[in-house]
Amino acid sequence: MRLKDKVIIVTGSTTGIGRAIAKKAVSEGAKVVVHGLEEDLGAQVVLELGEENAVLLIEDISDDGAPDRLVELAIRKWGRLDSVVNNAAIVAASTITDTDKDFISRILGVNTIAPCLLIQAALPYLIESRGAVLNIGSINAWGGEHNLLAYSISKGALMTMTRNLGDSLFREKGVRVNQINPGWVLTENEVARKKTHGLSDDWHENLPKVYAPAGRLIYAEEIAVAVVYWLSDESGPISGQVVDLEQYPMIGRNVPKDANTIPHK
């Protein structure tokens, strides 16, 4: 097993990509701190994983002291910490005309500042274990869509933090920091969000090839499989890297002029 006996914090793991990561990590031998906002869903995840393999904290990651409480829970339960997966995020639409100070502060607080503070809180234990951090970004970090301004800014900042810490922490402390940027992933939250935009229940079954050359979106479980590599010893000394996980090249892509498109995010 590729993560045998490693203790991993996965934020935002009561649903979606985070839940898939937690489940895959345990299947590879890890112990996981499950975190999120939905107590009933979190309890279900822990039940599925087994109480010997998982422990739950329900709290907004941007609350004062929340990162410290996550770390303390891992240490209290298993006595060590090997990895942090910064997955929790708010995905919310905004443009230059409707992004006010409170809104962008909230997005940055959860998507960018909280991951930095969690790394800070975990650092003494990650140094001891020569551990790893994996930040879950987004292909929107490279610029983003016009109606995802604040979200794109937050993921771009996260990417810069990954590059910065991936160099300094590994060089000085032996802690690796990397990032993956998922593209469009089919999760229960994404299905529900698109329905609020007026799309039909089966919107994801007939996607334009411009957005899904495979004829479908990426599955959360496929992202989770990739995560294992970055948390395992197989990735060796690789640090400070950002890898896009999408069906097509995000930068330099040729979009057909006659593409039958629907809103991406």
TrEMBL record:
It holds the Pfam family adh_short_C2. It comes from the Bacteria. Belongs to the short-chain dehydrogenases/reductases (SDR) family. This is NAD(P)-dependent dehydrogenase, short-chain alcohol dehydrogenase family. It comes from Algoriphagus locisalis.
